[in-house]
Amino acid sequence: MTGRFFLALAVISACSDSQARPAAGKSGDHKVKPAEAASAARARSIKLEQVGGRFTSPVYLTSPPGDSRLFVVEQAGRIIVVKDGRALAEPFLDISARVRSGGEQGLLSMAFHPDYRRTGEFFVNFTDRDGDTRIERFSVSSNADVADRSSTKLVLTVDQPYSNHNGGHILFGLDGMLYIGMGDGGSGGDPHNNGQNPRALLGKLLRINVGRAEPYSIPVGNPYADGSLGRREVWAIGLRNPWRFAFDRPTGLLYIADVGQNQLEEVHVEPSSKPGLNYGWKRMEGDHCYGSGECSREGLQMPAVVYNHEGGACSITGGFVYRGRRVPSLN
After folding, report:
1. Which residue from 55, 44, 46 is spatially nearest to 87, judged by alpha carbons?
2. How many CA atoms lie less than 13 Å away from 318 in the CB half-sphere?
């Protein structure tokens, strides 16, 4: 878009000055260089501009590949198109009658097919009226700004035992597969041990192929693809509530913002091509053992960054690595 850019940051805290730190075992003691200080000063000079008017509980924003329109996902079950800086009156999609919204439930994200111009397909992740997670496929109508609600097809449903920790993010990876972030099922402390159970879809990052079979097929390379040791859809385990994650194309890295329990928030950064990683929950919260104070770190992927809840710090929000041209100091 001419003259402006849109930026999402991995937010440490919007309501606190709590300190972030490299996790144990990661490189630390980074000294700020003069050039970095100058870049930081330029970044601080960036001003915010309101775009598209007012929205009701917006939880996600995205665009189809190569498209200048913005699609704003509202928690209650609506997707609003922002075109030429203006929010269109008619929603792109309205499934609010089918969505249970409030707290951590609702319409939580959408993902456009990588070849959206040809297929016209997009996917949504929402909490249905029974409180369970549904991933559904839709197609655009003859009007490019309005979806065909009758085109809906169920891709995957996951029973949710509690109302929180739904995860909620869906995103196409660098390999063209659809990745689904699933929380541990809720309550507190993962009472069903879903995070460390490879036979549960909760507490996981899932990876499915929505381009070869209906409703999906299992991609080559999934760690439990034969189903003998775990669910075939599972790509990684040990997550508590991966509310947002992102792929950085130039490096091939996967960034996961995993919401913590009571002590620590964490960001994981690992190669997106590595299957079967264990991010630690609930053996660990951040870079500390959870509960008993003693645990084995063997086979676990430690977070790149953690921060604590001192001073009322917020849960980790997530975002993208910025590689745009408008503000090179942010690269």
Report:
1. 55
2. 22
- pLDDT per residue as tens digits for the range 158-192: 999 999 999 999 999 999 999 999 999 999 999 99
Neighbouring residues of 226: CB distance < 8 A, sequence distance ≥ 6: 232
256 contact partners, CB below 8 Å, separation of at least 6: 181, 205, 239, 242, 245, 267, 268, 269, 279
Amino acid making up residue 265: E
- Say how many CA atoms lie within 13 Å of 188 toward its Cβ: 4
**Residue 237 β-bridge partners:** 278
Strand (E) or helix (H) holding 183: none
Q: What pLDDT shows up at residue 43?
A: 63
| Segment 113-131, tens digit of pLDDT | 999 999 999 999 999 999 9
Closest CA to 239 of 191, 204, 199, 290: 204
- Please write the tens of the pLDDT for every residue from 254-281: 999 999 998 899 999 999 999 999 999 9
C-beta of residue 309 within 8 angstroms of C-beta of residue 15: no
SS3 category, 73: strand
**Secondary structure element (H or E) that encloses residue 167, with its range:** none
Tokens in use for 87? 């929010």
Whole-angstrom Cα distance, residue 311 to residue 15?
A: 9
Q: Specify the pTM.
A: 0.89
Which whole-number Å values give the CA distances from 290 to 161, 195, 267, 279, in the listed order? 22, 13, 17, 13
DSSP 207-274: EEB-SSSSS-BPPTT-TTTTSSSS-TTEEEB--S---EEEEETTTTEEEEEE--SSSEEEEEEEETT-
CB-based contact 241:259 (threshold 8 Å): yes
Q: With a cut of 60, say whether residue 9 has pLDDT above it.
A: no
294 — pLDDT class (breaks 50, 70, 90):
confident
d(CA 327, CA 331): 8
